[in-house]
Amino acid sequence: MQEERSGEHERTNDSETVSDAVFRRLRHDIIMGILLPGSKIKLEKARERYSISISSLREILSRLSAENLVLAEGQRGFEVSPVSRQELTELADLRTVLECHAIGLSFAAGDLEWEGSIVAAHHRLAAVERRLLAGDVARTIDWVRCDWEFHRAIVAASNSATLLQSLSSVFDRFLRYHMLAGSFRGKAVVDDHKLLFERALARDADGAKEIITSHVQKGIDHIMKDPKFLSGR
Predict the structure, then answer these.
(1) Which residue in 36, 110, 170, 211 could disulfide with 114, CB within 3.0 to 4.6 Å?
(2) One domain, residues 65 and 175
(3) pLDDT bucket at 18, cuts 50 / 70 / 90
């Protein structure tokens, strides 16, 4: 075995260690479908790909296991967590509960700065969505980022770090299903975001919760209809 790499807890910038950066990269690769559900994660190959030691890689995979993105198989190693209709439904329900609760808190506490962040986030999201509707599929990655930034801005004033962290994790796991099935579902999702934006500025929490509930359910329907996804699962 090659000598373990040193310096993996050194900072790559003011706030992130090398291990943190690899964790983020590996997590991104799972969520974006680059590492497919059920695929084995071979430690030596992953060590070379992510330029990190085996021991640190094991720690990272254990962290991902805690988010149910990776399965630890004892002596058999690790694999990317499989997908299922049941998990998709459970994630959708959990996302709806968390996001609707966060909306109630955020709409009650939000100030002018909060409103401004929503306006800016929606402006960026709408710009990317226009490009996607025009056929520029290369902007899908930008859309994924802007979509979360918009939803996060909506609930940012909830003042609950634990709630937002939980929502972020569930949001990403739900997103993985979208990426496997084909992430962007066209004008319908654009219309949902516009309505949610309007409800947020109007401080209409009940209306926003209705939109989120419908928005998530339509996401499930979109995934379930995709012929190349979840077939036979």
Answers:
(1) 110
(2) no
(3) confident
Contact assessment for residue 61 and residue 27, using Cβ atoms and an 8 Å cutoff: no
Alpha-carbon distance of 73 to 83, in angstroms, equals 17
Residue found by looking up tokens 């979840």 in the block? 230
Domain boundary among 80, 97, 129: 80
Q: What span, in angstroms and rounded, lies between the C-alpha atoms of 204 and 160?
A: 20
- Which residues, at least 6 apart from 50, have a Cβ–Cβ distance to it below 8 Å? 22, 25, 26, 57
Burial of 95 (C-beta count, 10 Å sphere; 0-12/13-18/19+)? buried
CATH number at residue 134: 1.20.120.530
Average pLDDT, integer, range 181-188: 77
- Residue 32: is it exposed, middle or buried by C-beta count within 10 angstroms (0-12/13-18/19+)? middle
